[in-house]
Amino acid sequence: MTARNGERLRQSIEKQAQRMAQAEKDRPTLLAQTVFLGTLALLFVLPVVGGAYLGHWIDSQLAGYSYRWTVSLLLLGLIIGGMNVCLYVQRH
Q1: Which positions ≥6 away from 26 have C-beta within 8 Å?
Q2: Shortest CA distance to 58 belongs to which of 46, 43, 68?
Q3: For 1, which DSSP code?
Q4: Residue by residue, what is the 3-state secondary structure of 20-59?
Q5: What is the pLDDT of residues 18-42, one digit of tens each?
Q6: Which residues contact 92 (CB under 8 A, 6 or more apart)?
Q7: Are 63 and 14 a contacting pair, CB within 8 Å?
Q8: How do residues 52-63 score in pLDDT, each as one tens digit?
Q9: What's the rounded Cα separation, in Å, for the pair 49 and 72?
Q10: pTM
């Protein structure tokens, strides 16, 4: 092996070691993953619960026994929550 090939090999190994070190630094920690999943959960759950609560309140204000608004706004909350999660994941 010539000195020139040895130098190229050494540079290649150093570059790979630097890439591995950078990849280790960039890897998300458990706390970062937990925060990300918690944010996704809130983005999905809040519209669902809000829609169900608002629908139940509207149904309680109307005469009769009906869950029409509760079910409608619950489904709307599911759709909005799903869209929130999709948009958040695309941006991050």
Answers
A1: none
A2: 68
A3: -
A4: HHHHHHHCCCHHHHHHHHHHHHHHHHHHHHHHHHHHHHHH
A5: 887 777 777 777 888 888 899 999 9
A6: 36
A7: no
A8: 999 999 999 987
A9: 12
A10: 0.66
